[in-house]
Design a protein that fits this description.
The chain is α/β, with parallel strands linked by helices and 337 residues long. The chain contains 7 helices and 17 strands. The strands form 5 sheets. A 6-stranded mixed β-sheet has the order 3-8-7-4-6-5, with helices on both faces. Strands 9-10-16-13-14 form a 5-stranded antiparallel β-sheet, with no helix packed on it. Helix 3 packs across helix 4 and helix 4 packs across helix 5. The radius of gyration is 24 Å and the shape is globular.
Length: 337
């Protein structure tokens, strides 16, 4: 009888045990689902390796700011939705999502946020659109137990007034314009000052190197990049994945080198991608140059110095990777225009 009572009490107390704290990447893959009609392959979300590292940084309590300088179509918006869901379910707080325009806000809610929440049992129904007892819920302002979520367009900075948040999520900030009402980015960040444990997540595809805020923030960070080993020279390679829209032949590549050493070859080229990462088994073009052959980008005036290569074909609608690899001290800059 005593053993049965002990087991019963232990089972009852176990119900009050809080769930284990998981890195955001594990939590997303365990609890979130992509609905039918949103993606080609609905079901549990499966992150690529580079996405896991970004996700885990977002919820790392030792990190206050995460800056993501990215290309298009890398799943950043889905990571923001996953971070929102995690905070709503595990660490309720005032959350603000800042997007460039009103249309962007509506499209994000209808096409990403609501479908993923509705398809995921862990968070389904938490962000209900029906007004609560205060009558304050709207499509872009949701209240939930312990916190709230507000989605604001940068073109309406006045909507940031009298609003305090702990979690700030920003998408495509380089598309945001400063209006007569002020700088929405600056105003949004100031809304987090009341919280010592605030979190500021900024991400964007750069538009112009001279005016880009995401480039400036990235330069002020620890500038982490994901590197891969080249299958030919075994050196670490710097890779940039890009989406090719149309069928086209390529007969020249610009290495984007701003400084070069006296010795040490530079290898660069284009390869395919597999499951979101460079596929060095499908190299389409690869060229190795000695330092005297490498043209500096900033020495060519308005036109970038292009290196002629054997023509190769890129299919439209596919991702490819541009890579550079060298054991020497070349200064490489990724194009942002």
């Amino acid at each position: 009888m005593t053993d049965l009572l002990d087991r019963t009490v232990a089972a009852a107390l176990a119900k009050f045990r809080p769930p284990p704290r998981l890195p955001l990447s594990q939590w997303i893959e365990r609890h979130l689902r992509l609905p039918e009609g949103l993606v080609a392959k609905p079901g549990p979300i499966r992150l690529w390796p580079f996405q896991r590292e970004i996700a885990d940084a977002i919820t790392d309590p030792e990190i206050e700011r995460v800056t993501v300088k990215k290309c298009v179509r890398v799943g950043y918006t889905t990571l923001l939705t996953g971070a929102t869901a995690s905070y709503v379910a595990n660490e309720p707080a005032p959350i603000l999502t800042l997007l460039p325009t009103e249309d962007d806000c509506r499209n994000y809610i209808v096409s990403d946020l609501e479908p993923i929440f509705d398809a995921s049992p862990t968070v389904a129904g938490i962000l209900a659109t029906a007004a609560d007892e205060t009558g304050r819920n709207t499509i872009r302002h949701r209240r939930f137990p312990g916190g709230s979520l507000k989605i604001v367009a940068a073109r309406s900075p006045r909507n940031l007034r009298a609003h305090t948040v702990r979690i700030l999520l920003i998408d495509e900030e380089d598309a945001m314009e400063v209006t007569n009402e002020g700088d929405a980015l600056d105003l949004a960040i100031k809304r987090t000052l009341s919280f010592p444990n605030r979190k500021i997540i900024r991400g964007s595809t750069p538009t112009d190197a001279d005016t880009s805020t995401i480039c400036r923030e990235y330069e002020a960070s620890d500038q982490r990049v994901r590197e891969f080993r080249c299958v030919e020279c075994k050196e670490f390679a710097h890779c940039e994945t890009f989406f090719n829209q149309h069928d086209r032949w390529i007969d020249g590549i610009t290495p984007w080198i701003h400084g070069k050493p006296a010795q040490g070859n530079l290898t660069f080229g284009v390869c395919g991608t597999y499951r979101g990462e460079p596929d060095f088994d499908s190299v389409l073009s690869m060229t190795t140059l000695a330092p005297p052959q490498v043209k500096l980008t900033n020495a060519a005036g308005p036109d970038d110095p292009m290196t002629t290569v054997e023509p190769f074909f890129l299919k439209g609608g596919r991702f490819y990777t541009y890579f550079t690899s060298t054991p020497a001290a070349y200064i490489h800059a990724v194009p942002t225009r």
